[in-house]
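Step 1: inspect the first sequence and its C-alpha cells.
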Amino acid sequence: MDKIITCFNKCPDASVRLICFPWAGGGSIHYARWAKALNSSIEVYSVKLPGREGRTKEPFFQNMQEIIDEVIGVILPQLKEKPFALFGHSFGAMTCFAFAEHLKKAFNLEPIHMFLSGASAPYSETRLQAPKRSDLSDQEFLIWVTSIGGTPPEILSNAELAKLFLPALKADIGVIDNYRCSRPSTPFLSCPVSCFDGKEDAPHDLQAWKSMTSGDFTVQMLPGSHFYLKEAANEKYILDHITKHLETAEMDYL
C-alpha cells in the first residue's frame, strides 16, 4: 500500500481517517503538513498517482476508472475497519466523487464527510461545457497553467523543470476532460458535503454537488484564486473546519 498511499504521521489510535486526493499534476507531499497540523484522532492518508514522486517511471493513468481501481485495490480493508472522510481539490474533487460513487455502488461503503474544493460537480453544465485543456499545444498549455497560479514560477520559467512537471499535469487534465458521469437522480450518499472555493477563481457550479447527498451541504468562499488553499489563513480555515466536523462525526458514529 505504501507505494500508492502515503501516511505521513501514523496514528493507530485515530478514530477516523482523512483520505486526500491530489490536484492535477500534484503529489502527496502537500498533505504532509496536514498530517502534522490535525490532531491525532485524525489519520491522514494521501494518494500518490503514477508518474510522480516515487512512481516517476510508471506510465500515467489514462482514465478515471484506472485511478479508482488502483486506490480501492489497496485501501479497501482500511475503509472497512474505521470511519473515513475524503478531501480533494480541483482534479482531486472529481476523483473524490468517482471514488465515493464506486465505493457506494460496489461495496455499500460511504465516507462520514466529503470535503470538496475548487471544482464544479462533474455532471454540471458548467463543467461539461468547459474547454478541453488537454487539447492545447504545449505552449498554450503552459500559458494556461501560468494563468491559474499555484505552480512555482521557477518551475514554469525553467524549460527542463517544466518538461518534468507538465506531462503529469497534462495527463491528469486529460483524465478529467474525458471523464463523464450522470447527475444522480437521487442522492447516493447521506453524509455531509462541505465545498470550498476561491473568490477570485473562475466560477464553479458548487451547488450542483448537492445532488449527490441527502446530508447537510455547505459552501464556503475564501479569498484567493484557484490555489487559494495554499495560503496559510485559508489552509487553517479548512483544517479547522475538517477538525470540527470530523470530531462531531466521530461522536455521532460512536
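Step 2: inspect the second sequence and its C-alpha cells, then contrast the two.
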Amino acid sequence: MANITYYVVVPFEQNEEGDIVMLDPVEARSADSARSRVRLLAGAGRGGVAFSRMGDPELGDFKDGEILEALGSLPANLDEYLSG
C-alpha cells in the first residue's frame, strides 16, 4: 500500500487536580480542518495540537509527526504524548 498522510488533533484539558491531561485524539480530513479544531479548542479554554503523520498502515511504518499548530494549555512534556 502507498504512504498515506493522516491529520490528527490531540485535545488537552485541565483536570480537577490542575494537571493537563490528554483526551482522545481525533482524526481530521485535512491540515486546515485539524488547525481549525485546535483553534476551537483554544477558544474554549482547552489546549490542542494538530499534526500530520505519513506512513504505510499495512507495514506499520510511519515517519515522525509534524506539528501543524499547537495552542492553549498544553503539557510541558508534549513530545512524550506525540511520539509513537
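Step 3: confirm your contrast with the notes below.
The CA atoms of residues 32 and 68 lie 9 Å apart. Residues 4-77 form one domain.
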